[in-house]
Design goal:
With 250 residues, the protein is of the alpha/beta class. It has eight helices and 14 strands. It binds zinc ion.
Length: 250
């Protein structure tokens, strides 16, 4: 079963008791940590040990999506030694991380820069990437395993489309999409999605299930579900820390 465990789903900064962006993408025998925002290491350990991870995938170099990484490096270097942990990202993300972490980045991580033309195999999962509409180079990603598929938008403005993923690898079962704010009105020009835009993006790509994530802490989260349901006829859920969402057939 391909599924996502939510390690953190707050947008920009963590809500009380929450954590910034982070997900554990799990299939049979494969565990990939997708974005490691501040606060997500504590929650990861509820579900997997660092030794159990097959890789980390980072979508972009905004602090709320990766700044647990220096802490992870410390844990691996001093307390939980293991084989070098593979990390996949774009070149911009790697440059930012190397600047902050320094030499130990190559001691504890086996870093691989990837681009949107590649399909990366991690265990039994196939990972694909596409460039979103955001302030720094940012990957959306599609994961296929065990006959199911899911996409994660990471951060994006509304001009991004999931159609590229559909064209490359077929229908998408579940979309984990950001909805940072409820309404575009008052947020003109900001390169994030409203709840309505997330619903429209899911509808246009013909996905079966939509999970909304990355709400800023003061958002009325249930209202995001209502707004997405108004434009998307499939199943809509809110990401909740600790929750697990199967791509299909749960
Ligand atoms: Zn961002």
């Amino acid at each position: 079963m391909l599924a996502v465990r939510i390690l953190g789903c707050s947008g920009s900064y963590a809500a009380a008791g929450g954590a910034c962006t982070g997900y554990l993408v799990q299939s049979t025998g494969t565990n990939v940590w997708l974005d490691c925002g501040p606060g997500t290491l504590a929650n990861l350990q509820e579900f997997a040990a660092l030794a159990d991870l097959d890789a980390i995938v980072l979508t972009h170099a905004h602090p709320d999506h990766w700044l647990e990484l220096p802490i992870i490096a410390n844990a691996l270097e001093w307390y939980e030694p293991r084989d070098r942990l593979p990390v996949y990202s774009n070149a911009h993300m790697f440059a930012e991380a190397r600047e902050l972490i320094g030499q130990s980045i190559s001691t504890v991580f086996d870093w691989q820069i990837v681009d949107t033309t590649e399909t990366v195999t991690i265990g039994d999962q196939q990972w694909r990437f596409d460039e979103t509409d955001h302030y720094v180079p940012t990957f959306a990603t599609r994961i296929d395993a065990e006959g199911s598929s899911l996409v994660f938008s990471s951060d994006t403005g509304p001009s991004f489309s999931l159609q590229g993923f559909v064209d490359r690898a077929g229908p998408i079962d579940m979309a984990l999409l950001e909805s940072t704010f409820l309404d575009r009105v008052g947020n003109e020009g900001i390169l994030h999605l409203s709840a309505t835009e997330a619903g429209e993006m899911a509808a246009e790509a013909g996905v079966t299930r939509l999970v909304l994530t990355h709400q800023a802490p003061r958002e009325e989260r249930p209202a995001h579900v209502d707004a997405a349901r108004a434009v998307f006829g499939g199943d809509v859920a809110l990401a909740e820390v600790g929750g697990q969402y199967a791509a299909a057939g749960d």
